[in-house]
Design a protein that fits this description.
With 500 residues, the protein is mainly alpha-helical. It has 2 domains: 148 residues, no CATH class; 332 residues, Neurolysin, domain 3 (Orthogonal Bundle). It has 21 helices and 3 strands. It has a 3-stranded mixed sheet, with helices on both faces. Strand 2 and strand 3 form a beta hairpin. Helix 1 packs across helix 3, helix 15 runs antiparallel to helix 16 and helix 15 packs antiparallel against helix 17.
Length: 500
């Protein structure tokens, strides 16, 4: 078995190297590549993606898996070896259904789509992006067809991001969650509004950057294995545990965008830097799902970064960076401002109480255009209509409406729901962390995050992608996924802020 496993790992390592090359090319495209490089980059991405796919679905991989599987009964089912074979088998069987030429063309199409989305967003012109998105949607439908029959056309892309989850399960979670979140938002709306104008003054971008990086390093982000750059849409990418990069987007006249964006991406980076090196260059050397990844970023952005204990420690530092804007503003006023609840156009700037409604809207739209109930040409109006229904506001233009997110340009249909699931997972993990670290709030108040990060390393990061998402939440907290901790957190926090 040892030699067979070694042979399998050699092939999987080569696939991982090719996938890392794709990630480097994509990172460069979103940060430093000149616009004129779009066509050439799309072809390079297409070629390397095809080679990675062909290497993974090669018959030899299947032969090695078949040779290894009879021996699994003699192994600890949770051992690295047993989990590697099982996870690889699942991914292999799924990947074999997708032709390599489709993978190559999809990568080419989405690379060009992303480049056009950037221009369309700047110009607030959906018509410019529309033909690219129509092609992306067409290819996502084609992709789902490789896995027919299915219960929902949304099942295959959802499974790409959240392994094992079905659309029916997702909708049931959202349907149970939405009325209780709406009730909270309605209760807050009846209270006097919080003034957040202090966040909309002129904040020097270089100082914003420096403060964000100061906090990122204190959280535990290792800059000997990472870096931060700017991009049109903030993201995190990791080529291996020794090279995990984040990006941010700054707004001179809105402090929270870059600040909380940096906290958020740092949470993602901490996860990737914490993945076990022993699993490098294998399919389990990654997070087990996008929702779990999101749970880590939302923990550092919100449960830590928007908390009162955090700002008791860091608000004097922020005031030192911006004495003219914040020097005379007391802590409570600032804390209430960064936790203001109000319907907003931009998802990434949404408060914790309304955020999930942005996700539910996107799920509605994705299912509608995949099922053929909504034409891409009608997306701007459908988006505006959905914003009115969910949040009671109408976007003034495409830039803050249908063009605000990068995801559809890259073909990431099925991704958005993981943001809401990540909020639920974050709160459930947070309750367990608080139980295991009784003085966690006091530690955060002192600017100490080592124990929290160590808890995440032990309970989430060290497992890589060995488990199914719903397996790990039980392993980490003792109970299946439930929205109750998230709702308890929201009601407790905003009950205190708004006197509910």
């Amino acid at each position: 078995m040892d030699e067979t496993l070694k042979s399998l790992k050699e092939i999987l390592g080569q696939v991982a190297d090719l996938e890392a090359s794709v990630a480097v090319l994509e990172w460069d495209q979103q940060t430093y590549m000149p616009p004129g490089g779009a066509d050439g980059r799309s072809m390079a991405l297409s070629t390397v993606s095809r080679l990675a796919h062909e290497s993974f679905i090669d018959d030899r991989v299947g032969e090695l898996l078949s040779a290894l599987e009879p021996g699994l009964a003699s192994l600890d089912p949770d051992s690295d070896e047993a989990r590697l074979v099982r996870v690889t088998r699942r991914q292999y069987d799924k990947a074999r259904k997708v032709p390599a030429q489709f993978v190559a063309e999809f990568r080419r199409v989405t690379s060009l789509s992303f480049q056009t989305w950037q221009e369309a967003r700047v110009r607030s012109n959906f018509a410019l992006f529309r033909p690219h998105l129509e092609r992306v949607v067409e290819m996502r439908r084609q992709y789902a067809g490789f896995f027919a029959p299915y219960d929902s056309v949304y099942d295959p892309p959802l499974d790409d991001h959240e392994p094992g989850m079905k659309t029916a399960e997702l909708k049931a979670i959202f349907e149970a969650l939405r009325p209780r979140q709406v009730k909270l938002i309605q209760a807050i709306a009846e209270k006097p509004p919080v003034d957040d104008s202090l966040l909309r003054l002129n904040y020097d971008e270089a100082k914003q950057w420096d403060f964000g990086m100061e906090v990122a390093k204190s959280f535990g982000y290792d800059l000997s294995r990472g870096r931060e750059d700017r991009s049109a849409h903030p993201f995190t990418t990791g080529f291996n545990t020794g090279d995990v990069r984040i990006t941010t987007r700054l707004d001179r006249n809105y402090l929270p965008e870059g600040m909380f964006g940096t906290f958020h991406e740092t949470g993602h980076a901490l996860y990737d830097q914490g993945l076990p090196q022993r699993l490098e260059r294998t399919p389990i050397a990654r997070s087990l799902s996008y929702a779990f990844h999101e749970s880590q970023s939302r923990t550092w952005e919100n449960l830590v970064g928007r908390s009162r204990p955090f700002w008791k420690h860091y608000y004097p530092r922020l005031q030192a960076y911006f004495p003219e804007q914040l020097g005379s503003v007391d802590l409570d006023t600032f804390y209430r401002a960064v936790n203001r609840v109000v319907p907003s156009f931009i998802r990434t700037e949404a408060d914790e109480a309304t955020y999930n409604l942005h996700i539910m809207l996107r799920l509605d739209l994705e299912m509608a255009f995949l099922e053929g109930r909504l034409a891409v040409a009608d997306l701007p109006e459908a988006w505006a209509s959905g914003m009115r229904e969910y949040l009671g506001i109408t976007p003034p233009d495409d830039k803050v409406g249908v063009l605000q997110d990068v995801h559809w340009s890259t073909g990431a249909v099925g991704y958005f729901p993981t943001y809401a699931l990540g909020n639920l997972l974050a709160a459930q993990l947070w309750e367990k962390a608080q139980s295991d670290i009784p003085d966690l709030s006091k530690q955060i108040e002192r600017g100490e995050f080592r124990d929290l990060l160590a808890w995440q390393r032990e309970n989430v990061h060290q497992h890589g992608g060995k488990y199914e998402p719903m397996e790990l939440i039980v392993k980490a907290t003792g109970t299946p996924l439930t929205p109750e901790p998230y709702l308890r957190y929201l009601w407790a926090k905003y009950g205190e802020i708004y006197g509910l």
